[in-house]
Predict the structure.
Amino acid sequence: MSEVENRDQFGSRIGFILASAGSAVGLGNIWRFPFVAGENGGAAFVLIYLLLVFCIGMPVMLAEFVVGRRGQGDPVGSLRRVAGKFFTPLGGMGIFAAIVILSFYGVVGGWTIKYTVDALMGALGTDVPSAGAVFGNFVKDPKMVIFYQALFMLGTFGVVARGIGNGIEKFCTVFMPVLFLLLIVLAVRSVTLPGAAEGLAFYLKPDFSKVNGAMILAALGQAFFSLSIGIGVMLTYGSYLKKSEPIVSPAFQICFLDSFVALIAGLVIFPAVFAFGLEPGSGPGLTFVTLPAVFSKMPGGALFAVLFFFLLVIASLTSSMSQLEVICAYFVDDRKWTRSKATLTVTCLTFCLGIPSAISLGGGLNIAGKSFLDAMDFMASNMIMPLGGMGFALLAGWGLHAMAKEELSGSDGKPLAIYPAWRVICCVVAPAAIGWIFVTGLKW
Ligand code: PHE
């Protein structure tokens, strides 16, 4: 058997969709989306966000699937095989971004475990000041933050070390449906609270006066981060897909599930925040300070708090495993390491690189006015991911269009109806939009 035939694969289409949706659905949807939307004009932001997801995000995701499925390898190896050596830096940049993202993602993932434990013990605080004190004391305690970060990284390692079919696919097939169910239970609880309507209005009534370059860049960065595109994650997952499987309908389903979870997360958060007279635009603290206060006032809140933070743990784990997988795929496919050596080494490396982020919120480790963690997030989500996405779009649309045409053809060998639109988007629309948004909106 050749090396490529020996590669691990997704066992089923639904397994592939749930694993990719698991990568996409994460802290980005439940922690980041609501506060970024809250800071950027609510529904106006949401509308622009959805437009960018389906008109730019989905075509870029398809471009990654095309390269990955054809290249049958990690981002660097796939690009070398399908496009030539000249293009491997695009894969290298993706792997670098995955290392940066996993380093801080592991820290926030650790917070979600800590909050689930505290929710179980009823120790989250009873109002905004006390919940703020709980959060403040926690992030200022490096030992605790690093302990939970380590626990989270260990969980990620445990799944990825088992490989694709037995590790990532199995985990996501069991836990993604649990996540969807929990989210719906929480949304029903939130929108049926007395006084929820004001929050719904804030979330669903667009304020177009807030639309400007910086806001659109925030929406683009959010779309790329949330869909896990631009850094080769989807390329790598696509490389574990059987040749006979379609890629267009899964791409649509993944984008749909991802947007659905983000929208519903807003429905969980805003009505509840307004119902108890709290402020929605409270930044990253929304989930970890405002929500605990909300839960403490809500009938049945103790139980809902546990469900909510457990949901966050699942969402973050299914994303962090995809970040770890991209990096490990490089060492396994390209450097011929064993999977256990690669997962162990990369887990330890990203854990150590995460320590500055872990201590940055409490200790004031800043880079030009942003905490180290926020700076890493900004660099990866608002800079590398859009640029990488532009690279994949240009490459697939211009350089690899003949190959893409074959990959985007039906079983009868004819190109799918979506192909011409996809090509125009990849060649012109996505690069121009990303370039324009980047130039006008990039502000530290
Ligand atoms: N999409 C994930 C989220 O929304 C984050 C992520 C980014 C995952 C990049 C993989 C790669 O939280």
Summary: The chain has 18 helices and two strands.
